[in-house]
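so my prof wants the structure for this chain in the tokens format not the other one, which i didnt know existed until like an hour ago. anyway here's the sequence
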Amino acid sequence: MKAIFVQFKCRPGQAYEVADALVQGIEEISEVYSTSGQYDLLAKFYLDDGQDTGRFVTEQLQTINGVADTFTTVAFKAFG
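here's what i got, hopefully its the right format
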């Protein structure tokens, strides 16, 4: 399994709807947080080693109603 973190910029007034869509519709999600700053949400996902990260983000996450932009970080190793 590999962990990825995705930040979501949502259309105005849509952050809670996007968070709900992530939790209800994406089985790979681990957790999602509302955040301050340039992005509205931060979510952690666990993907199978053979799963294509680019396809997952572009086809399953960026297409969620209310998502305006995403920023993806691939994690290499967890400490602690």
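also thought this was worth mentioning. The mean pLDDT is 97.
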